[in-house]
Amino acid sequence: MRLVGQTSDESFPPEGGLRGGGGDFDAAATWLRERLEATRSTTSIAMLCLDAEGGVCSWVTSPSTDPSVVSASVRLGTADGSRAGGGAFDFYAPSESESSLEALGPRTGKPAAGVLPPRLAVLGIADVPGRLLVDALDRQGVAVEQASTLWHAMAVAWDPGAPRTGSVNAEAPADSPITAIVLIDPLGRLLWCWSRGGTLLVAGSLRLRMRRAEQGEAGPDLPEYGVEDASRLAAEWLSWSVQLARSPRRIVCVLTPSDDAAAFGEALGGAWPGAPVDAVRHEDPLGVTLRRLADLIESTPRAAAAGEAATTLPALSRRAGRSHRRMHYWRAAALLGVAVVLGMGAWQFQSAAGEATDSAKQWESRWREVIKEAYPEMPTVLGESSSPLVLLNEEVKRRERDLRPVERSDQTMPILQELDTISLVLGSAQCDLEEITLDSTLRPRVSTIVRSAEQAEAILEGFRRIGGSFVTNWSLTGSERPQGTEQRIRALYQGEWNRDALKPEAGGSR
After folding, report:
1. What is the 3-state secondary structure (H, E, C) of 271-331?
2. Coil, helix or strand at residue 401
3. Dihedral sign from CA coordinates of 54, 58, 64, 70
4. Residue 162: pLDDT above 70?
5. Closest CA to 128 of 56, 52, 54, 75
6. d(Cα 246, Cα 486) in Å, to the nearest integer?
7. Which residues pair with 450 in a beta bridge?
8. Is residue 165 within 8 Å of 300, Cβ to Cβ?
9. CA dist 244 to 124, 179, 318, Å?
């Protein structure tokens, strides 16, 4: 385990890493907390970076890029029983309790109807050591802000198209080319990844030969890499290009000092034409990668450091810790408080219901006494099986009928309202009015002088169609009448009162 900062690089245990099967994660967490106490950030680690050992990247055909759908496609297989890359995932990521699966690249959602499901690059990694270390740090009061892999760190640290500003809104250009990053691990591994704007697209690794130090020669074993390794790498890239329909446009190599470094770069550039190769040699490629990542994180505000699926391992980054448990404790306490308040409210409602029942019984006994005083013969009239409430209701209804005012036998018609209605019709017609007769007991009559029969019919149609009128069944009787040199028509209109429309509704005035 290495703790890398802008000015520090320490290992635990000091002589190497945790290589045993049962590492003391509590001791490692204590060591980390002691180192953090000497810095400004004493309560959190900016990023936990898992080694690529125990990880694998393979392609899978999935109907969606949703993490749950991708996980089901990989772990359960497709409907036809085939599963691309299933053997590798079965070995490195056999179950959710032992590993994490993440779809790499941007999220595109569900494909349109009629479009074949895309092939996705899926990263599977055994993250049990990371979970144990996160839990141990949580017990020490140290939070882990983000968790990622060494491949993610390579993409962010070495991709020239990755954002380099600390702005919250810093984004890579949409037209950033795909960059292939190659890193030589002094322990004998060749790690590579594809990145677009710092977003990990594909990852992989190759084993390298190790040159042992000769007798009498000081120094550790060194990895050997050359033209044949560049050919192996180019062949693997070619298979990925066919599966994902994309390829890198430039190559960045972080190599260890070797006499074959130049030949390796030339061979890789020749095997992948059109992509310029930028190579740098360093004694510790892993250390310089982590330091570049630390510098980038240090220049990023905390508000902008929230990891996304493209640059972190979301499952490990969101692992529940002390703050989550405290939130659940407070939520449980709030629910308990609500339950206590509801219980007290229910008890008060029950008490109020009991008091209301007692009050109802008291009022019932009182009105029974009042009835007996006002109507002493009630027991004789009712008998033993009848209720006094029935007799009381009948008595109330009888007295209401006695006190109800006498209804008029004749019915008054709305004379003024109907006069306004008739005036509205005649006002729009060019005619001479002779007479209007409106009486509650007689048929309504309107006599006019018009120029033609068509005008008389139009007035009749107006009487029939106008709304708000209580006169129906209008009829027309016409007769010719000379007026000077012109021949006019005397139109007599008669209707009937709609008395049914004037009857009071049930339950109206009494």
Report:
1. HCCCCCEEEEECCCHHHHHHHHHHHHHHCCCHHHCCCCCCCCCHHHHCCCCHHHHHHHHHH
2. helix
3. negative
4. yes
5. 54
6. 99
7. 489
8. no
9. 18, 15, 29
pLDDT surpasses 80 at 261: yes
Question: End-to-end CA distance of the chain, in Å?
Answer: 97
| pTM value > 0.90 | no
Backbone dihedral angles phi then psi of residue 486, each to the nearest 5 degrees: -105, 155
Q: What DSSP character marks residue 500?
A: G
Q: Which of 193, 163, 165 is nearest to 179 (CA)?
A: 193
What span, in angstroms and rounded, lies between the C-alpha atoms of 236 and 194? 12
**pLDDT number for residue 165:** 58
Q: Are 124 and 14 in contact (CB under 8 A)?
A: no
Cα–Cα distance for residue pair 126/128, rounded to 1 Å: 6
Structure tokens at 210: 């190790």
Q: Residue 117 phi/psi, 5° resolution?
A: -60, 140
The C-alpha angle 142, 145, 147, rounded to 5 degrees, equals 110
Q: Are 382 and 391 in contact (CB under 8 A)?
A: yes
User: What is the rounded distance in angstroms from the CA atom of residue 190 to the CA atom of residue 127?
Assistant: 21
Backbone angles phi, psi at 469, to 5 degrees: -95, 145
Per-residue tokens: 26 = 């509590």
413 by Cβ neighbours in 10 Å (0-12 / 13-18 / 19+) ranks as: buried
- Quick one: tokens of 13? 């245990």
**Residue type at position 343:** G
Domain range summary for the chain, segments of one domain joined by + = 49-211+221-318, 321-349, 365-398, 415-502
Q: Tell me how far apart the alpha carbons of residues 125 and 113 are, in angstroms, rounded to a whole number.
A: 33
The mean per-residue pLDDT over the stretch 216-222 comes to 72
The closest of 211, 208, 242 to 225, measured between CA atoms, is 208
**209-213 contacts, C-beta under 8 A, 24 or more apart:** none
Over the stretch 394-426, which tens digit does the pLDDT of each residue have? 878 888 888 887 666 567 888 888 888 888 888
The correct answer on CATH 3.30.70.60 for the domain covering 415-502 is yes
Give the pLDDT mean for 370-396. Answer: 67
* Size of the chain, expressed as the number of residues it contains: 510
For 49-211+221-318, CATH number? 3.30.420.40
Residue 432 near residue 448, CB atoms below 8 Å: yes
3-state secondary structure of 33: helix
Buried b (16+ CB within 10 A) or exposed e, 440-479: eeeebebbbebeeeebbeebbebbeeeeebbbeebeeeee
3-state secondary structure (DSSP) of residue 189: strand
Q: Which amino acid is at 112?
A: A
